[in-house]
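Hello Y.,

Per our agreement to keep a running log of every chain we model this quarter, I'm adding this entry. I've kept the format consistent with earlier entries: sequence first, then predicted structure.
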Amino acid sequence: MAEVTAALVKELREKTGAGMMDCKKALNQTDGDLEAAVDWLRKAGLAAVAKKAGRVAAEGLVAVAAAGTRGAVIEVNAETDFVARNEQFQAFVRAAAQIALEMGGDMEAIIAARLPSGATVGEELSTLVATIGENMTLRRAAGISVDKGVVSSYVHNATGEGLGRIGVLVGLESEGDPEKLAAFGRQLAMHVAAAAPQWTDVSEVSADALDRERAILSEQARASGKPDDIIAKMVEGRLRKFYEEVVLLDQVFVIDGESRVREAVEAAGKDAGASIKLVGFVRFALGEGIERKQADFAAEVAAAAKG
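Predicted structure for the entry above:
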């Protein structure tokens, strides 16, 4: 049997728009013959997604799943928000989130995992594309776990249990009261959804981001015409403001609007009976970073007229 390489699977995916696991299976079934694999997919009804694969999928759903010390969040995209209200699509996303919880957010493992129906997640997604008639992609997944404590979740703009447009996980490590930890964790997850921090602690801010911000602030400060030593102090003062905007522990806690998140964590630890360590967070906002195509209505009309 010919070797089925990753490059060959990639080429078949680009040619047919079918899922990765389907392409691998087709190549195995046809001894690595690319054209025969295309025919195999077409016969199986899986290459029907080819024309849809080029369309932008920026809608869909974000789903969260949490159980004690573990949590996962996943994003599945579709072309229109209409699909997000489809019960079949919602059931698939919810099931995928549960598998993500088991797999710790490992995307390859999620796609290859089998659903109760017997189909893999990748196969079921291809079936949905063919059934519903829109391009869909399982875009990303992530997981958080703690040794002791809780992983709390929150979904904003919820369309169903654990489904919505923004999904958040927060990991709290502590030996405190589990119920109090869970209640505070949910408040913190709500804060993350609203404030959209980029990092948990100042020490996590990347050197590139810091250099970029420092360069911008230095240029702004120089416009004041002040001496270099004063400019340096101005830059450091403005960097503190930058941290307050993008670092979770330095942000003002939206629940009370007064204390910093680090102070809220300390207070919650006293209430729970043991100190709390904020291990980290994950925040998925539906479609963020996806470039949406801008419709040119005039061009569409002209093309239709020519047709």
